[in-house]
Design brief:
Radius of gyration: 15 Å
CATH class: Alpha Beta
Number of domains: 1
Distance between the termini: 18 Å
Order of helices and strands: EEHHEEEEEEHH
CATH topology: Alpha-D-Glucose-1,6-Bisphosphate, Chain A, domain 4
Oligomer: single chain
CATH architecture: 2-Layer Sandwich
Shape: globular
Helix content: 25-40%
Number of strands: 8
Structural class: alpha+beta
Number of helices: 4
CATH superfamily: START domain
Strand content: 35-45%
Largest sheet: 8 strands, antiparallel
């Protein structure tokens, strides 16, 4: 019987910040290549909301913009901007709602990388925070973050 792969849910101390981490048996460069390519985000999306990438470069850098066709109850499109970037160790983007998706990569061995994903709505405008609370998005987002990391591990190790 194979063991189910799970990511570790991290307690952030802030209900507006949801985070999880996982160890992936791959070098940071390989993982970062997937995270920094918006055309590959659908294959690792643990929320199952990304329908397709509709615009953007093949490799994201600080300031890059990319668009996604999404579905969460209804179809919509969203444009993201990369707001944090350090090659092979950090990438984060946000959209109009100003919540951030952040990935931090730390080498822990020659072929092992710890990846932490964080959804951060702590600096979002009050209306965006109210909408997230009304939609009961925080518990759902915590699960989506954890699932994304499991999918990222499968993609990188498969």
């Amino acid at each position: 019987m194979s063991e189910k792969i799970r990511s570790e849910i991290l307690e952030t101390g802030n209900e507006k910040i949801k985070s999880a981490r996982i160890v992936i048996n791959a070098p940071a460069e390989k993982i970062f290549a997937i995270l920094s390519n918006p055309h590959r985000h659908k294959e690792i999306d643990g929320s199952s909301t990304i329908q397709e990438n509709i615009s953007g470069p093949d490799k994201l850098v600080l300031g890059s913009k990319f668009g996604m066709k999404m579905h969460l109850g209804v179809d919509y499109r969203i444009k993201n901007t990369v707001v944090e970037y350090s090659e092979n160790s950090l990438i984060a983007w946000r959209h109009l709602g100003r919540w951030i998706w952040r990935y931090e990569l730390v080498n822990i061995g020659p072929q092992q990388t710890q990846v932490t994903e964080t959804f951060d709505a702590s600096r979002a405008p009050l209306i965006a925070k109210a909408w997230l609370s009304f939609r009961k998005a925080y518990p759902w987002t915590q699960k989506a973050v954890a699932k994304t990391l499991v999918r990222l591990k499968s993609t990188c190790e498969g």
